[in-house]
Amino acid sequence: MSTPSTEDSKPRRAKSARSPSPGSSPGAPRKKKVPSRTKRGTAKSPPIEAIPVAEADVEAEAVAEPVAKRVPAKAPAKKLRFKCARCNVVLTVPMSKAGKYLDCPKCSERTPVPSTQEEADADMIDYGVKSMAYEIPAVCTHCKTKMKKGAVVCVKCGFNYKTGKQLEKTDHTLGSDEKARGTRAFIGFLLNVWGFIGSCIGSVVLVSGESAFYLIGSAFGGIMTTAILGYKYCDLWLIYRKIPIRDKDTKAEEDREERDDAKNPFGGWTPVIPLVCAGLGIGIAYLMWGFRIPEPGSQSLAAAMKEVAADVEKMKLPDGASIAGPFVQGNVKNALQKKVQRQPSSKPPRMPKGFAIRYGINPTATDFDYDGFASLVNVSGKDRPIMLTALHAFGPVNGMPSQLTPSELSSEVTRLFTEDRYSLDELGDVDVEFIPIMNAAPVDKNSEAGDIAAFWLPKSHMKHAAPLAKEAPKEGDRVWFAAPVWGDDSFDNDLEPAICLGGDDRGNLVYEFDNSELTLTETSGLPVINQKGEIVGVQVAGWKNGNRLVGVANSVKRFRPFLDKAIDK
Asked: Positions of the region Disordered (predicted)?
């Protein structure tokens, strides 16, 4: 026998026997253990139930290439692409956001994230039905109206997000009561009539002016109310009685309330709007009327008429006489009883532009105190024109508190606004100087010079002056009254023809107009002209006797001597 080597003599560790795993044969190879891929801190996603896709969808997808690449369900994509339910922008989010909500970065709308890519692809194809739009607060993609959570049908356009169809328009009534429906129509009709009448009143007032001027405010309020509410939005029966709209096809009460809210664009403020418009109309009416209130110290029309009526009782005038302005003292019966042969009508004289003027006392940048009418005359040998007018125009008849005395005229009337009586062209603001005429007094007073007032004007107005006559016209002479008076066919530079009837015992000039339909209102101070174009008198009064229209002027024969003495001083 041989001896074992050293190596063989070393002790060896015996291998431990392993028992085979249950169900495996002793000679079968062992399987390696695969470590779990689940990372720490991440929870396993719950299984997502796949949404079945219709065969029509599959065929459509086979023909049309989808917007997003499909990813097999067995190997889920790391990112998910889908469309925003409102703005339709394509969004890409991690798969960890699947089945949750996020705010769209474009429209800021709360948008649902599909649970799977297949669901997202169905939305991307835009087949018609937004799969989850009716389950969340969203905006209707057809009319952009906000929808409540759980709403299926848009209350404004009627689109059904569950069926993908739009409801047909349905007739709706105010409950089942036909009387309520008629009441609503009647209220709308009344508002339309109110607005129409208001606009008519406003149009008439704008044309006429005068005493109805304050009605513009009321008409304006009516027009505004009808324009703001209108018949379309004037569902007053619903607003005040809270009667819900009942459609013929049954809907949820919540949808009916939303429809009411959509129909009323003013919300809870609707009942207040008529009150606001009414208050606005009353306020404007008050302001319009305020502009017509006389200034402090001025005389109202009613007070002036009372004074005229009182003067009528004191004065002795021909039977049936009435007057436009202060009454004339003196006996004019003789002049009226004369049978004067009328001369044939002749061509009126040619007068310089601006010889008959309207003046305003103490003008400012915006207004003047009082106004009246006058004529500009030139006296031979003088380089400045003279303004002649009636003295009574500076008294209560013209709205002044009292009749101004000569000393008051010198201090109060120092600057005048002047304009052409016919064309209304402004002749400028001028400094004036009062000419004190001895023995002058208003027409209702007994005086030698009569009702006359005179002022020096600057040389710049000399071109507008007419010559002053030295002699009065005779009986039967043709004269003209220089004023555009109411009743004439034309309001232009025409002179009103008249025939001289002579004078009265006071020296006034009496004349009868050819046109008896004229109205001599506000004509005191305007001139009477002869055939030569000379000024022969200053109008102070007039009245209608039967079918005759008579005028009275302070004759040049009466006041010229006193005027010459005053200007020669």
From this structure: 1-50
What are the backbone angles phi and psi of residue 144, rounded to the nearest 5°?
A: 60, 30
Contacts of 363 (CB under 8 A, 6+ apart): 415, 416, 417, 429
Q: Would you say the C-alpha torsion 523, 524, 525, 527 has a positive or negative sign?
A: positive
65 exposure class (CB count in 10 Å sphere: 0-12, 13-18, 19+): exposed
| R_g of the chain computed on alpha carbons | 52
Grouping H, G, I as helix, E, B as strand and the rest as coil, residue 165 is strand
Cα–Cα distance for residue pair 356/135, rounded to 1 Å: 88
**How would CATH label the architecture of 356-467?**
Beta Barrel (2.40)
- Same fold for the domain at 333-348+469-556 and the one at 356-467? yes
Q: Cα–Cα–Cα angle for 36, 42, 46, nearest 5°?
A: 90
Query: Whole-structure pTM over 0.70, yes or no?
Result: no
Domain boundaries, the chain: 66-166, 172-290, 333-348+469-556, 356-467
| Tally of CB atoms within 10 A around 313 | 6
State both tokens at 154. Answer: 């848009």
- Quick: pLDDT tens for 220-260: 555 555 555 544 444 444 444 444 444 444 455 556 556 65
CATH superfamily label, 333-348+469-556? Trypsin-like serine proteases (2.40.10.10)
Distances (CA, A) of 316 to 250, 400, 554: 90, 26, 19
Query: Would you tell me how many other CB atoms lie within 10 Å of the CB of residue 567?
Result: 15
Closest CA to 321 of 543, 554, 537: 543
**For the residues of 328-393, what is the DSSP string, one character each?**
PPS--HHHHH--PPPPPP-PPPP--TTSEEEEEES--SS--S-EEEEEEEE-TT-SS-EEEE-GGG
Give pLDDT tens digits for 66-85: 444 444 444 445 788 888 87
Question: What residue has token string 């009460």?
Answer: 253
Tokens in use for 462?
A: 């000399």
Give the Cα separation of 95 and 19 in Å (integer). 46
> What are the pLDDT digits (tens) for 469-500?
989 998 888 999 987 765 554 444 578 888 88
